[in-house]
Amino acid sequence: MVTTTAKRPSALAHATKKPSFREQMHQAREDAIVLAVNKLLAEKGFESMTVDEVANEVGIAKASLYKHFPSKEHLAAAAMVRILQRTQAFLRALPQADSAASKLKQVARWTMGVHLDGEMPLLPSENSSLRATLMGHSAYLDLLTEVSDQLGEWIVQAQADGAISRDIPAIVVLYTLFSRACDPVLGFMKATGQFSHDDIVEHVLRTCFDGLSAR
Amino acid sequence: MVTTTAKRPSALAHATKKPSFREQMHQAREDAIVLAVNKLLAEKGFESMTVDEVANEVGIAKASLYKHFPSKEHLAAAAMVRILQRTQAFLRALPQADSAASKLKQVARWTMGVHLDGEMPLLPSENSSLRATLMGHSAYLDLLTEVSDQLGEWIVQAQADGAISRDIPAIVVLYTLFSRACDPVLGFMKATGQFSHDDIVEHVLRTCFDGLSAR
DNA sequence: GTCTATAGACCGATAGAC
DNA sequence: GTCTATCGGTCTATAGAC
Known about the structure:
2 copies of one chain form a homodimer. In chain A, about 70% of the residues lie in helices and about 0% in strands. Chain A is mostly helical. In chain A, α7 packs across α8 (about 170-180) and α9 packs antiparallel against α10. Chain A is globular, with a radius of gyration of 20 Å.
C-alpha cells in the first residue's frame, strides 16, 4: 500500500514534493512523541523520564519510538530542538520597532510563561549522558547558536542604549536570561498557590532586571 | 556485654557518655559517606548518582552503607541536612553588627562559593522520589525552617531599612536567594574558563541584587 | 570465644534497546 | 514481546575488636 504515492498532486509545487499520506502520519506521530517528551522532560527531567512513560503518553508501542529516534537521548534532543525552534519563532515575531531591552524582557517573560505552563524541558545536570548527545547534535547546536546570536545582538544593543548595565559582560547577561527560563523560583512560587502565573512572571522578571535591592 | 558500662568513668561527665572507640570510627565513616554523597549529588544529581558509586567513592562495601542509612533517599537526605547545617553555622557566625542586607549578601556570596567548589547538592526535580523522603525527614524540615526563618527575619529587616525593595514579597526574596545557590549561570560561567571564581560570584551577586538593567 | 561490622556475591525489578 | 545490563537492596561467610 506504499504504492499510492501521487494521490493528491497538490497545487503548490513546493521543494518538499509530496507530503505523502504516509509521511504525514509519520510526521504527526513524531510531533506527538516530541510533545510528550517535552512534557515529561519538563515535569520530571531527563533521568527520571522513562521511555515506557513516553510510549504510554503517546499511546504507541515502545518499539515504535525507536523507528523515530535511536535512543532516549535523541528523544530528549528532539524536545530541546523543539523548544529552541519555538524560541526562534518567538524572536522573529517580535516587533522590529521595539527597543532591544524591550525585546529581551519580552523573551524572558515568554520563556517564564512556557516554564509555568509545564512546557519547558529542564537543563540536564552537568554531566548527564544527554549532554554528550546534545554536543554532537548539529540541529540543536545550530539553533542554539542562532538564538544566542540574536539575543547577544540585542544585549549589546541594549547596553549601547544604556538600558542594560555595561558593567556586566554580555555573555553573563545571556546566561542569566537562559537560566531564568529554568528558574526554580517559578516552581516554588507556583507551589505556594499564593500567586497567579502573571504575578509570578512579573515578580521574577522585575527581580531579574531590577534586582532585589531597592532603587 | 552491655554490662561493661563504667569502664572508664572519664573526668567529664557529659550527657554523651563514652565516645567509645568504636563509635568514633562509626561516626568518622558516616561523615565520609555524607561527604561523598554530597560531592556526587553536586556533580550529577540524585537520579544519576548510584549507590555503588557512593560506596566506591568512600572505599567501603555497598552493604555497609545500609548499616548507616536505610535507603538511597536517606543518603541524599543526610547530605541535604549537612549543607543546611553548614548554612546555619555560617548564619550564626555572621557579625551581629552587620546590616540585614549585608548579611543576606554574604550568605548569597557564600552559597555561590560552595556551589562553585562543587559542594552544593542540587535540588531534586519537582517530583523525585527524594522529595517524599525529604518531606518526612524531620531533621531536614526543622533545619530548613530554622534557616528560612533566620533569613526571613533579615529580609523583613532589610526591607524596613529600605535596602531591599518593599515591592517584592519577602517569600519571593527568600526563594530567589535559595535559587541563586543552585543557579546554572555559575556553571555556565565556570565552563567558559574566562572567569575566576571570584569574578563569577561577584557578577552573579551583582546581577541578583542590582539586576541586569543599568541604574 | 563472642559478637559486631564488613566485603563481596547475590537477587529481583526495571530500564533501555531492538 | 524479549533480551540484557544495571540499579537498589539483601544475604552470608569471615575478619577483627573486645
